[in-house]
Automatic annotation (TrEMBL):
NCBIfam families: PPR
Top-rank taxon, per record: Eukaryota
Family the UniProt entry places it in: Belongs to the PPR family. P subfamily.
InterPro entries assigned to the protein according to its UniProt record, in alphabetical order: Mito_RNA-Proc/Resp, PPR_rpt, TPR-like_helical_dom_sf
GO molecular function: mRNA binding
Gene3D superfamilies: Tetratricopeptide repeat domain (1.25.40.10)
UniProt keyword annotation of Repeat present: yes
Pfam families: PPR, PPR_2, PPR_3
Species this protein is from: Vigna angularis var. angularis
Keywords: Repeat
Stretches forming PPR repeats: 236-270, 271-305, 306-340, 341-375, 411-445
Entry protein name: Pentacotripeptide-repeat region of PRORP domain-containing protein
Record keyword Repeat present: yes
Length: 500
């Protein structure tokens, strides 16, 4: 493939080169049975309808199919209650056992909707049927959702509850707790919990790697590395990568390079993650060209860049507003057989968003859809906010229609901006249609959005339509309640400590 160079006089206002982002993705036909079952989950509203539709569909509900359906529900923010019915219905079959992937995905879906009562009930059910079903990964999935809305104490209390559910309540489970705290809370919290529980579990290499990856300052990381060595735990590539990363984020590139030398002295070969950290660090100190050279240097050591490494280099040029160089790296990436992903696109969306470049944003979005790379929530937010600013109703509705049809992005976040636009433009019918589509997907529109649409419907004397809309949204617990989650009164965060 020929790589074409671009000369861009004004990066923020340049048109997207026609050869940039060519056919990055090969289209593939989605499994018909997965689509059929997902459609049943989306279109039925009661357990009885669900069961009858599944029976009459003629689809064989294999483990592989269930895995794919649940994955689809997760990324499309489907109806959690109906999905739970599907999970239980398929699991009741004689001799059938859900995969660990299915269980963890189902728990993630419930946890995201804060249906913690159902989470614990399901864990008990699965433990009763298969004592080995709940793994350390399951522990992490559940704790991650709890930690998002509960305190550190509540998260640790939930961790202790797993002692009765997990066959081997060991260091792997302890590590799951620490990883959750690093991601959802603070490093101070993780460190305190580590010191309070480390005598109950024997810390291993993974324990230290998890904690090292969360430190923000070189001093903290160096101190913890010293404690690790004093306990007789030998650092590995992951350990050194954490140290390189913290040095790079602290703009201490020289120290990062010294770590690379130390790794090689100990016969540890820096990997693609090591070099990706270096690339990011060079970008932070304003050296995007040197960062691009790292892509070539790493090949000399037998380490080949992946999509993340290229994205790091592309990000540097985007920050420097050198889009021509960024485009060039995308083409080089494609020529190496690597597929740019939503993160790659978002690097450009961010530049276009801050420069109010609607034309290039829309061109890039359409290219994504043609090539089969579905936007993520960040992509959608960049786009919908630009549409809102420029009052582009048609573009906003096309984005929403694709979200509903293909199941990408967060309906809740995008809908708030969308309804703002539609109501400001007096597009009542369109707002009502999108509102109903969201409800059919099992997602509750925000209280603010409902109020805006309610006012417009009252002004238009559409009282019957408003009453119908009110009844439909009442399945989430009533339209006038604050929109925090689809959690019922018996499924508050505190209730997760009383459910067995």
């Amino acid at each position: 493939m020929l790589v074409r160079r671009f000369s861009v006089k004004s990066p923020l206002n340049c048109a997207l080169p026609s050869t940039v982002f060519p056919h990055w993705f090969s289209s593939s036909n989605e499994n018909d049975d997965v689509q059929k079952v997902f459609g049943i989950l989306s279109s039925t509203s009661t357990p009885e309808q669900l069961k009858q539709s599944l029976k009459s569909s003629g689809v064989f509900l294999s483990n592989e199919l269930i895995d794919q359906v649940l994955k689809r529900v997760r990324f499309s923010h489907g109806n959690p209650s109906q999905t739970l019915e599907f999970f239980r219905y398929t699991g009741r079959r004689k001799g059938f056992y859900h995969t660990a992937f299915s269980l963890d995905t189902m728990l993630y879906i419930l946890g995201r909707s804060r249906m913690f009562g159902h989470v614990w009930d399901l864990l008990v059910e699965c433990r009763r049927k298969d004592q080995t079903a709940i793994t350390a990964r399951t522990v992490m999935v559940v704790l991650a959702r709890i930690a998002k809305v509960c305190s550190v104490r509540q998260t640790v209390d939930s961790f202790r509850k797993f002692r009765k559910l997990v066959t081997e309540f060991d260091t792997n489970c302890f590590n799951a707790l620490l990883r959750t705290l690093c991601q959802e809370k603070s490093m101070t919290d993780a460190r305190n919990v580590y010191h309070s529980l480390k005598h109950q579990f024997r810390p291993n290499l993974q324990t230290f790697n998890i904690l090292l990856s969360g430190w923000k300052t070189p001093e903290d990381a160096e101190g913890f590395l010293k404690e690790m060595k004093e306990m007789g735990v030998t650092p590995d590539v992951v350990t050194y990568n954490s140290l390189v990363d913290v040095y790079c984020k602290g703009r201490e590139i020289e120290k990062a390079y010294k770590v690379l030398e130390e790794m090689r002295e100990q016969d540890l070969s820096p990997d693609v993650i090591t070099y990706t950290c270096i690339i990011g660090g060079l970008g932070l100190i304003g050296q995007p060209d040197k960062a691009r050279d790292v892509l070539k240097e790493m090949k000399e050591y037998g380490c080949y860049p992946d999509a993340a490494a290229y994205n790091a280099a592309i990000r540097n040029f985007c920050i420097a507003k050198r889009l021509g160089d960024a485009y060039g790296l995308v083409e080089e990436m494609v020529s190496k057989g690597l597929s740019p992903n939503a993160t790659t696109y978002n690097l450009f969306f961010r530049v276009f968003y801050w420069s109010n470049d609607l034309h290039n944003s829309w061109t890039m979005y359409n290219r994504m859809m043609v090539e089969g790379c579905l936007p993520n929530t960040q992509s959608c937010m960049f786009l919908i906010r630009l549409f809102r600013k420029y009052e582009k109703v048609d573009m906003a509705l096309q984005l929403w229609g694709n979200m509903v049809e293909k199941g990408f992005g967060s309906y809740t976040l995008v809908s708030d901006v969308l309804f703002d636009l539609l109501c400001d433009m007096g597009k009542l019918e369109e707002a009502e249609k999108c509102f109903l589509e969201m409800i059919e997907k099992g997602q509750k529109p925000s209280n603010v959005s409902f109020r805006r649409i309610k006012v417009l419907m009252e002004l238009a004397n559409r009282h019957e339509a408003l009453e119908s809309l009110t009844q439909k949204i009442s399945i989430f617990g009533g339209p006038l309640q604050l929109h925090q989650s689809s959690m019922s009164k018996t499924e508050t965060p505190d209730s997760l400590f009383t459910n067995s």
